[in-house]
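Weekend entry, working from home. Most of the wet-lab plans are on hold until the incubator is repaired, so I used the time to fold the two sequences that have been sitting in the queue since the last round of cloning. Logging both here for the record. First:
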Amino acid sequence: MKKIINTTKAPAPIGPYNQAVLIENTLYISGQIPMNPVTGELVEGNIKEETKQSMENLKAILQEAGMTFDNVVKSSIFLSDMNQFADVNEVYASYFESDTAPARETVEVANLPKFVNVEISMIAVKF
């Protein structure tokens, strides 16, 4: 059965989608951008801070579904500039243990929603 997961601790969707969908033990999390869920404002100016906000939004959604980053099996990172990869990777890596980190791809794209610099989506499984 399909269960919609939403939390006020992550930004509200800005289109016709939900923050996440849980099907059985698998959670599909929509891409999260660096938006502060309290103020609705974008975190801008520093890719590390932007990445941290995106990861904190993902963390809130995982928690709402009763999961943690340990449950994440796949991540997708979208960047506006691949030259920022090292800084994004540094922040991203701080949320995972390297020996159990999920599968991942990182791609550079022409534009992202609200013209942010980073967006991250995830798939998690409750073991």
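Second, folded right after the first finished:
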Amino acid sequence: MALITISGFPCSGKTRRAEQIRSSLETYIHDESYQGPITKVVLLSDDTLNLKRSSYDDSRSEKPARGALFTAMQRQMASDTILIVDALNYIKGFRYQMYCAAREMKLRVCTVFVVATQGLCREWNSAREDGLAYAPETLENLLFRYEEPSSMVRWDSPLFTVLWTEDAPPMPQIWEALTKGVVKPPNSGTLAVTKPPTDALQALEQTTSSIVSAILADQTGIGGKLILSTSMSTPSSKPAITLPICTITLAELQRLKRQFVTVHKKAITLGTTEKGAVDWGEESITAKFVTYLEEHLRS
């Protein structure tokens, strides 16, 4: 149903804000006035996945840690769930990846930017006694590399900023974004392309050749509707074509056939097929080729 991305400096108070958001959302869900599809709130974090702070010491260990977080996030996404991802999420490319995954699942999204000064983050990190502190050099590296969210980009929007001086996040606005915000369609670049069958090229060539042969054999030159006796069609499904008042030559039909085959061959080999299911059967190819011929023989 929705994805909340928590982002901010390390030791800026993200976990506290995530817990506040989770508690408030559960209150909204269990309210008697709410009759929507959301039934649960899931909080996902480095701690729930047992990812150590040392994972961020270098890129070699950080990459699999981010991969584990992303995989767990995909597993938890559901139409009845609000998923809160409480992690550094400091790389805008990773936030974009999360955004695309949410779009594929048709989830609403929002980003909560937890703000604290770098001085406070250093102070809070050094004061931790729970064994979850960052190494000083790791903390400085993460502070330097942090890429701040922006409301100007779609993967960070809508963006809610929570300062360290504020008591709580703006829950009414967050709840409205999660329940009434626009559900954006999946990114076309992430959609799986329907692959044609392995014999699609052969079927394309044989079917169009059969149509050309039938037109040459059956045409009368007086135009009008003509039922074609193709070798590949059953008696109950013989194709019909409307021809102009003239005798159509083999050269003209071969030229149109080559053009039609070239266009569809490119669609087959490169995967640039039209949206939706594509039928590469004989009847479908016949109908497309007949329509193509009718349009171009009139011109």
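Plan for Monday: verify the second prediction. The CA atoms of residues 129 and 168 lie 24 Å apart.
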